[in-house]
Amino acid sequence: MKINCVLFNDFTALDAFGPAEVFGCLEKIYQVEYFSLSGGKIKSSRTNIEVTTKPLALIQEHDILLIPGGFGTRTEVDNRALINTIRDLAEKARYVLTVCTGSALLAKTGLITQKKATSNKLSFDWVREQDTDVEWIRNARWVVDGKFYSSSGVSAGIDMALGFICDAHGIETAKAVAKGMEYLWNADKDNDPFST
Amino acid sequence: MKINCVLFNDFTALDAFGPAEVFGCLEKIYQVEYFSLSGGKIKSSRTNIEVTTKPLALIQEHDILLIPGGFGTRTEVDNRALINTIRDLAEKARYVLTVCTGSALLAKTGLITQKKATSNKLSFDWVREQDTDVEWIRNARWVVDGKFYSSSGVSAGIDMALGFICDAHGIETAKAVAKGMEYLWNADKDNDPFST
Questions:
Q1: 3-class SS of residue A90
Q2: What phi, psi does A169 have (nearest 5°)?
Q3: Would an 8 Å CB–CB cutoff place B176 in contact with chain A?
Q4: Which helix (H) or strand (E) holds B23?
Q5: pLDDT single digits (tens) B91-129
Q6: Dihedrals φ, ψ of B113, to 5°?
């Protein structure tokens, strides 16, 4: 299955590459690729990583759409071309995974109106404003509603990706991936130590 | 302070970008840059991230050297040009941080002979062979010996980077960074859940 990761300038590196590392551990099943609206080099916020991307228009296999957050979302929510493209891709995707303020980009498409979702806690009120008709759940490490997975801030994306692996392949596979990464998995999506 | 991150093909993304995210949270103090032996594009193992790097020879500020691990280390330990360059940079650096099998690259330089170090558990015996006169500590999330910080596998690098922040700026700063990343920090470097 293809993981199509949507990047934009000032994305948060760990939001994208944490889940990517989880899926990469099962590289015979999942292949992660990186896209942006126009393709080319995209730079992460604060960590200064310059990543080569392909244009989003080149996506042909609509398996899993992965949308990280980051300071860039503050302007990208008003980028109609990006939001319209994300809406199109998210409609076609079998699963859509958002991390942190990546949930704001998805919310802006209108696709999760009346659905449950979460986001990071420091930006929660701003994310909520992007679509107040989403059933925003503050106290959640991650939330699943149908094909939509959304996680809290940054590191929660790793927990969510392992949760996705668990749902798709069982708990033992998820535990094995976490062990290979020497990652202490918070496996309970309702256990959010940062919500208060 | 500059964090000079040494990349090579088939590095593990989270080994590098986990600690980078930690330091990026204090971007007024730490700036992360990415280098490789010849510069240019470097690709991560399994996660397929193509990162733009500068040549290692361009490093001018020798604050902190960050060396991730990954499958690429299996061949890079025999890359004399890289090992010699790492030795030179590590000698000049104020601090050297290695993650996972990045410890093997540092060990190969001979600079940590008779010093304490750790590495990830699945490759521990292979790492040990790179310099059997290092005091390898299996049961450790991370190890500090003078200016050398070394961590266990992948995610342990995030714990170590937070440990470095704690040593340099105090526990409250480290906790604040972990909270901003919504990361459940394993703050005890001797607590290694993966050593057995």
A1: helix
A2: -130, 0
A3: no
A4: helix B13-24
A5: 999 999 999 999 999 999 999 999 999 999 989 999 999
A6: -55, 135
Could you tell me the pLDDT band of residue A157, with boundaries at 50, 70 and 90? very high
Residue in A12, A18, A181 nearest the CB of B153:
A181
Q: Tell if the CB–CB gap between B48 and A24 is shorter than 8 Å.
A: yes
Q: Measure CA B47 to chain center.
A: 18
pLDDT at A136: 97
- Measured in degrees and rounded to the nearest 5, phi and psi for residue B118 equal -135, 175
d(CA A140, CA B139): 33
Please check whether residue B51 touches A, CB under 8 A: yes
How many other CB atoms are found less than 10 A from the CB of residue A138?
15
Distance from CA of B124 to the nearest CA of A (A): 13
Three-state DSSP state, A153: coil
Q: List the one residue out of A44, A108, A99, A102 whose CA is nearest residue A73.
A: A102
Would you tell me how many other CB atoms lie within 10 Å of the CB of residue A70? 26
B-chain residues within 8 Å CB-CB of A70? none
Q: Which of A47, A153, A184 sits opposite B17 (nearest CB)?
A: A47
Closest-CA residue to B8 (of B47, B46, B51): B51
**CA of A69: which chain B residue's CA is closest?**
B181
CA atoms within 13 A on the CB side of A169: 15
| ipTM of predicted assembly, 2 dp | 0.96
| CB within 8 Å: A194 and B181 | no
Q: Do A46 and B25 touch (CB under 8 A)?
A: yes
How many degrees, rounded to 5, is the angle at CA B63 between CA B34 and CA B179?
Answer: 75
- Say yes or no to pLDDT of A58 above 90: yes
Ramachandran sector of residue A9 (left: φ over 0; alpha: ψ -120 to 50; beta: rest): beta
- Residue A101 vs residues A128, B83, B100: alpha-carbon distances, Å: 10, 40, 30
Token code pair at residue B174 = 């480290």
Least Cα separation, residue A47 to chain B (angstroms): 5
